[in-house]
Amino acid sequence: MNTCSKQVVLAVTGASGACYARRFLERASALEGVSLHVVLTDTAREIWRHELGCEAPEGFDDRRFDAPFCSGSAAADVMVILPCSMGMLGRIAAGTADDAIARIADVQLKERRRLLIVPRETPLSLIHLRNMATLTEAGALIAPAAPGFYTRPQTLDALVDGFVARLLELAGLNPLEPAYRWTPGTPFQETI
Fold first, then answer.
1. How many Cβ atoms from other residues are within 10 Å of residue 181's Cβ?
2. Is the full-model pTM beyond 0.90?
3. What are 56-66's pLDDT values in tens digits?
């Protein structure tokens, strides 16, 4: 019997939030049945160094179209753009496909494959919101980098872990662990 792994593309763009991408890479790589491919922009590599103090992982260069999954005949099962800059989001919404990340996202949409976009920007302009609406209508799932606090995370790592656990669930890669799931009846402290 031939067991196929789920083909996943993690695209990292030049938005702040490298901690989310690093943790997603660690968690997704450890999942059984997941084959993970990373595509990074030059700016993503710079931000990774600045925010995390280390070099970005090896991956495909966003300027090259020989990255896997740039063709509809080789579409990935899942693409996660984490974090997604508003420039990249706009290019995908416009259908320009002028670099590998935008092209792979375009393939995901046209082939009706899962595309999870994680913008990390605030405030949002009307242009940003319209681009997000366009992508949602085209089939993408928009999940802004907005971690939950109901689990009462005590560290930045715990906050990142909770959000990445939710992304793994949205990507269809791993069920949300009970530690990160809100349960009705959970006592919440009321604040004034």
1. 16
2. yes
3. 999 999 998 88
